[in-house]
Amino acid sequence: MESVTRRDFVRNSVAVGATVATVIAPAAAAQPAASSDGKIKILAISCSPRRGQSTATALGVCLQAAKEVSSKVETELIELAGLRINGSIAAGIPLPEGERDDFPSLVPKLADPKVRGIILGTPVYFGNMSSLCRAFLERCIVLYQDKFALHNKVAGVVAVGGTRNGGQEVTIQSVQISLFCNEMIVVGNGHPSPRLGGTVWSGAEGGVLKDEFGMATTKALGRRVAEVALRVAGPT
Questions:
Q1: Using N-to-C axis directions, what is the helix angle for 54-67 and 212-233, rounded to 10°?
Q2: Beta strands 198-201 and 154-161, pairing class
Q3: What is the largest CA-CA distance in the chain?
């Protein structure tokens, strides 16, 4: 087998993402411009393999708090559950024959100039993010390579663990590193008790909505992302 260097990986991933990049380019070029109607959009990406469960529920609370900041804020929840996202493509490795790739369909939403905030939510598995979250972040190299299409979008992270201290903050930091690399403006949850992000306990009796502490951090994160995103977008 022919050896492939890291530089080859990066070069190949550019080639693999060429079609995707044609979609990104117009949006990336327009990134600094505010929406003509003054509205901004905040996306929440649920990286749980289980649709409609704890992570999606927590993100729904986060988005509701973001909407309450201003009538200019619109929101959308995207669940990756059921989507085929192969992280190996980020290294320039071709998609296996016959395998579906759903990541390109997400690119226009992520790169949309109206999208000023992105909140990632992931369950905690063995003290870190889900494999689906990792694959999603690796595939974002296409946005990274196309003039940093996520540049100056505000980012926050929600982590959902099976126990109260189940690695949520470690997981948040791990996700944040990738967001920093994409030149995003990474924020925590702000006042009244600033922390790294939304730290949620899925084992609370009655479900995540009964986790008062976790919901407080999640609501605060939604507000913080919305406030900073509005400030970055500036006046129209």
A1: 50
A2: parallel
A3: 57
Question: Mind listing the pLDDT tens digit for each residue in 179-218?
Answer: 999 999 999 998 878 889 999 999 988 899 999 999 999 9
In angstroms, how far is the first alpha carbon of the chain from the final one?
A: 55
Amino acid identity of 108? P
- Are 101 and 89 a contacting pair, CB within 8 Å? yes
Structure tokens at 203: 């084992």
pTM score, two decimals? 0.86
Give SS3 for 190: coil
Domain residue ranges in the chain: 6-20+40-233
Q: For 95, which DSSP code?
A: P
Place domain 6-20+40-233 in its CATH homologous superfamily.
Flavodoxin domain (3.40.50.360)
The answer to whether residues 169 and 138 touch, using CB atoms and an 8 Å cutoff, is: no
Position of tokens 């708090």?
A: 65
Task: Report yes or no: 129 and 72 within 8 Å, Cβ to Cβ.
Answer: no
The dihedral sign for the CA sequence 89, 103, 124, 181: positive
Q: How far apart are CA 169 and CA 181, in angstroms?
A: 19
The pLDDT tens digits for 163-188 are 999 999 999 999 999 999 999 999 99
| Distance from C-alpha of 122 to C-alpha of 171, rounded to nearest angstrom | 8
